[in-house]
Design brief:
Elements lengths: L2 E2 L7 H4 L32 E6 L2 E6 L3 E5 L6 E6 L2 E15 L3 H12 L18 H6 L1 H4 L3 H7 L6 E11 L9 E10 L6 E14 L8 E14 L3 H13 L2 E3 H9 L3 H13 L3 H9 L3 H15 L1 E6 L4 E6 H9 L10 E2 L5 H4 L4 E2 L9
Length: 368
């Protein structure tokens, strides 16, 4: 059967390199003498399994979960590691509606309270300005609504999002208000107990239906996709997870049926997706050659969000992650602790800032 990618997935070459199936996952180096916390990414199975769904299938890592809903350009899916749920890849064919102003939202609410007809916008959040980065920063507001929760059942908890970099892309929709970008960001779970990093691609646009009235203006997102992983794992996992994303395909027959029932914008997205595929090599190189300063900023903003700081031992280069409240106590008199030579990381030392940390509370002990 001839393979054909989903409209939303046609934009994936911009974000990920093209492969036909899942790739080999990183394997732990058991010969390393470094502390356990500084080992490479935990062992993941090299095996894959295929999941079937209406019109096609996808290869995912063995043992991972997979959920998909919808169809055609509105097909959504997410796959994640049940042992480490922050490791996942996803695609939302349709990223949802949102208000552009509180004034319009208040007008619609008053209209409904006076007996007016409800619209799909009712209850949705205000997201403005309409940019890919701002959409991602505020996606947690979108994810709180039942329609989004029902669509995927499982999705990365994008709270406390800190943007690291934004690379503008050519939108897949022919609209003067559309904008698309590749966004690198760090974020936490809802309870701020885990820090993760992600690479996302999304297109957002605004619509003005009329000068005044209910739902006169609104925004929406399309082709929202990404790869996420715990801090310090993304470099190792982005390639194998992107291969799984690229294995997603639909049959010619299914796509033909979608095209016959599609709108003009869906057709435009298909054409634009093919054109954008030529940029895939450049985009992957852009990730591989990302600036060292961005890597450091990513770690620093993650620490700030989690209320943590780092100290390192110059003799062993071991980096310890400690609570903010510990720093003042240690600085006042390091000799009171079993490790008295710890220092703060030099601001521009990429090697130290990207070294996985050891939990300081397990190793730094007060002795007097």
């Amino acid at each position: 059967m001839k393979k054909f990618h989903l409209p939303a997935i046609l934009l994936l070459p911009v974000l990920f390199s093209c492969f036909s199936s899942c790739g080999q996952f990183p394997v732990k180096n058991n010969n390393s003498n470094k502390p356990a916390a500084q080992q490479p990414v935990a062992l993941l199975s090299n095996a894959t399994e295929q999941r079937q769904f209406d019109g096609g299938n996808i290869s995912i890592p063995a043992g991972w979960n997979f959920v998909q809903t919808g169809g055609c350009s509105d097909r959504d899916f997410v796959s994640w590691d049940p042992s480490h749920p922050d490791r996942q890849f996803f695609c939302l064919g349709y990223g949802g509606l949102f208000y552009l102003s509180q004034q319009q939202k208040n007008f619609d609410n008053n209209y409904i309270n006076m007996g007016g007809m409800r619209t799909p916008l009712i209850g949705k959040p205000v997201i403005y300005p309409v940019t890919p980065a701002n959409y991602i920063q505020n996606f947690y507001l979108m994810a709180q609504y039942p329609d989004v929760q029902q669509a995927l059942q499982k999705f990365p908890e994008l709270y406390n999002v800190q943007i690291i970099s934004v690379t503008p892309m050519t939108p897949g929709i022919a609209s003067p208000t559309a904008s698309s970008a590749l966004v690198r960001a760090v974020f936490t779970d809802r309870n701020r107990t885990r820090a993760s990093e992600g690479l996302f691609l999304v297109t957002v646009l605004s619509m003005q239906i009329s000068a005044y009235g209910p739902s006169a203006s609104f925004g929406y997102a399309t082709s929202f996709m990404g790869i996420t992983a715990p801090m310090n794992e993304l470099d190792a996992l982005i390639a194998p997870m992107s291969k799984c994303l690229q294995s997603f395909y639909l049959s010619d027959e299914y796509v033909g049926n979608c095209m016959r029932a599609s709108t003009q914008q869906t057709g435009e997205a298909l054409k634009a997706g093919r054109a954008l595929s030529a940029a895939s090599d450049n985009m992957i190189k852009g990730w591989q050659n990302k600036s060292k300063s961005e890597d450091i900023i990513s770690q620093q903003r993650s620490d700030a969000t989690m209320g943590r700081q780092r100290l390192y031992d110059p003799s062993t280069k071991t980096v310890y992650n400690v609570d903010n409240t510990f720093i003042d106590a240690y600085r006042s008199d390091p000799s009171k602790f079993n490790m008295s030579n710890l220092q703060q990381l030099p601001p521009g030392d990429h090697s130290l800032w990207t070294t996985p940390t050891v939990n300081g509370a397990d190793h730094i002990v007060r002795i007097r």
